[in-house]
Specification:
DHHA2; exopolyphosphatase activity
């Protein structure tokens, strides 16, 4: 701010999964190499979590360490004052892997100049904002396409390897059965491999990332809930949606679960929490289950009813036994309805 240097931040979403992190890193690198404003602006990829949460992003820490990218070289959300930069008129913001800023960041909307996302568009942006919103399996696919359209020679092996692993993880190893992959994801993986034939075999990198992602062995319940967390809110309610990588039965039997859930929600002001568990069989097909927790019975039943009666998409929920009166549990028959598809249902219910 003192030097009046313009700062162009590339930032992913608050879950800061591998797709958000790698999309931010790769696109900021590309912009720094190719942007006409590069000499006078600093291009900074920002991981949209506090540094203390980074250990929870086990697949991201694994992939970055594999490619010798030290944690110390990364910039986290609690290490940069975006609001201060914006007030000083120095901030440009590119959003990757999301296009709706949380209410706490509403003031930053004016600074957004570019959006790359692979969710259905839920918010209009000014015509001056460059918008790339396409329903592909991975935001890293859109970043790869953007880099491929740029000058030749910018893409290096490390960036290619990060994008390659991310697209494979997001698309469930390009498996049609999982319902995430599109022809554009396949084309980008092929493009990266044609430029860097030494990239690892699909199964090798996918299985290594999948093992890292689902490795929650060392985490407390609180860390597990924080590991893959999204929120939706209304004027007076804040709802947490946590992706959990274990069977719902095992999760519900964790020692001290009720105290942990209550403390977690109280500390962060959540009125309710929805845990979406996912596991995969050897054919990469997902099994999904849901748990809805709230001490407020009317709110819990409102959320449960919205999930049970949802039609876009229909979740085909089957009630499961729950050992706790303030948790409703379900098997989700529609295993292709990922959290991305469930979030709008919950947002509408609030």
């Amino acid at each position: 701010v003192r030097r009046r240097q313009e700062v162009h931040v590339v930032m992913g979403n608050e879950a800061c999964d591998l797709d958000s992190a790698v999309s931010a890193l790769a696109l900021a690198y590309f912009l720094a190499k190719t942007s006409p404003t590069a000499p006078k602006a600093a291009f900074i990829p920002v991981l949209n979590i506090p540094r203390s949460d980074f250990a929870l992003r086990t697949e991201t820490t694994f992939l970055l360490r594999e490619h010798s990218i030290p944690d110390a070289s990364l910039v986290f959300r609690d290490e940069i004052d975006l609001a201060g930069l914006h007030r000083a008129g120095l901030l440009s913001l590119t959003l990757v892997d999301h296009h709706i800023l949380p209410s706490a960041d509403a003031a930053l909307e004016e600074a957004v100049v570019d959006v790359l996302d692979h969710r259905p568009l839920e918010q209009e942006w000014a015509p001056s904002c460059q918008l790339t919103v396409e329903l592909v399996g991975s935001c890293a696919t859109l970043v790869t396409e953007r880099i491929a359209q740029g000058p030749p020679g910018v893409l290096d092996r490390t960036t290619a390897a990060l994008l390659h692993g991310t697209i494979l993880l997001d698309s469930v190893n390009l498996s049609p059965a999982a319902g995430k992959v599109t022809p554009r994801d396949v084309a980008c993986v092929s493009l990266l491999e044609s430029r860097f034939p030494e990239l690892p075999a699909h199964d090798t990198i996918y299985q290594a990332l999948q093992a890292a992602k689902f490795d929650v062995s060392g985490l407390t319940t609180e860390q597990m809930l924080r590991k893959d967390l999204k929120t939706v809110s209304s004027d007076e309610l804040l709802l947490a949606i946590s992706g959990i990588y274990m069977d719902i039965e095992m999760f519900l039997r964790r020692p001290g679960l009720m105290q942990d859930l209550e403390a977690f929600c109280q500390a962060r002001g959540y009125s309710a929490l929805v845990a979406m568990t996912v596991s995969f069989n050897e054919r990469h097909e997902p099994t999904r289950q849901l748990a809805v927790y709230s001490q407020r019975e009317t709110l819990r039943s409102t959320l449960c009813r919205a999930l049970e009666e949802a039609t876009t998409p229909c979740l085909h929920l089957q009630p499961l036994p729950s050992p706790w009166s303030c948790i409703s549990a379900y098997a989700q028959g529609n295993a292709l309805a990922s959290r991305k598809k469930v979030l709008p249902i919950l947002r509408a219910a609030l």
